[in-house]
Amino acid sequence: MFRFIRNPVGFFLGVVSLLLLYSSCSNEIDLNFESDPVPVVWCLLNPDVNEQFVRLGRSYLSDPADPGAAPVTDSTVWNLDVVVYVEEWADGMPARVFRFEPAAAQPKDSGYFPADNIRLYKSGFTAKRGTEYRLYVHFPDDDRIVTGTTIPPQRPVVYDPLEIPGRKINLQTGVQFTSRWAPGEGNGVFQGEFVINYQDSLSGEVTHNQVIIRMSPILSLGQEIEITDLFSGNRFLEEMVRQVPVKQAVVRDLINVQYRLFKGGEELALLVSPDLQETTISNTLNQYTNLVNATGVFSSIQITSVNNLQLSNTTVNELAHSELTQQLGFRDIHGGEM
Hints:
Elements: E1 2-4, H1 11-21, E2 39-45, E3 52-58, E4 83-90, E5 93-102, E6 119-123, E7 133-139, E8 144-150, E9 157-160, E10 168-169, E11 176-182, E12 188-202, E13 205-214, E14 218-220, E15 227-232, H2 233-243, E16 251-264, H3 266-272, E17 295-311, H4 313-321
């Protein structure tokens, strides 16, 4: 059995900003002590890559007289070096230990980010699915040790769409495309997305662009044999109008479509589904944490991709000639445009 989560509040990509911008708590934190800063720790192990990252921040209290003002830098930074490492467990004991070192900062989204506040650490190893990992972060400033545990779940198996020669996806008005997958062992949360690749030709110059259309997250309770998700042709046209800019004299061609299925670990499922949380203290965000002595999440994320999909002829023609989308300049299957 599964159900949709209607308002994911940014989910995979946006939740990092929420964790780093707002204070929150766990059972080990006394909310009444204004002088006690709270570490913000965020780590998503990815079994598909050979580098893992940990992001560290620190909560702060805003000025009641001016809530929008940036805090004093001294209240948002950790002055002493932080020790970060992950243990990989096997047969009830640590089998390997991975030390994390400071890494170069990554580009950040809009918002207030003190330069010294958000620290990024990385370690070179590949996480194993179905294996227990334990995170440890030592903050010498207040002699605090943050801990957390996670087990990356097994990879899902996508049944549809599949990259089959001659198979095309129909996304015309009034039609719904059904994506299907086996969730794999382990609880988690899923989110599918379609990436529409197209090219612009204007004044002899060709550029490649993308439209990314994300589905609503779906919670898996570990009991499903198969999970399905629906993507309507109406939404496809609406998203093309919303994301593709109108340009005079441009000629556009669809190249292909990519389907990507994100699977987050059980901890991310608890984070985005407040009614499943079993915590005794929460802030106004009703934020979940599986860490001791900090707020944040230690979990996992993985992506299954299906590439080089093609849209049906009727979908291509409708995109070119529909009253809703004809001003975008896409050509039909015969190379014509409006």
